[in-house]
Specification:
This protein has 98 residues and is α+β, with helices and mostly antiparallel strands. The chain is built from two helices and five strands, in the order H-H-E-E-E-E-E. Strands 1-2-3 form a three-stranded antiparallel β-sheet. A two-stranded antiparallel sheet has the order 4-5. The longest helix is centred in the N-terminal third of the chain and has 20 residues. The chain is globular and about 35 Å long. The N and C termini lie far apart (51 Å).
Length: 98
Amino acid sequence: MKIVQVTVLLGALFAVALGGRCIRDNTNGEPGCKTKEEIDQGYWRHNFDPTRFWECTKLNEPAVLQSCQHQAFHPSQLECVDWDNWEWEPVCAPLSRP
């Protein structure tokens, strides 16, 4: 019984830790490019089209929509990859909005 309680507690802590990193995003994913972190990361996935991504080039300037040629944008590798190497990942909101 003790093992079940510990397992449930660890599972709950893990879910809370993951939940704090990712706020679900139901928009197209366009970042506001208003923080240094967004500029440093540079690229953000387009939430509705896996062949496209947003690029933050300058602070407080609108993000630029880019496209992968015959490939998909990998949200954690932050680059265009062959479809065989692409996998779906949870959609997380950028740090700011336009």
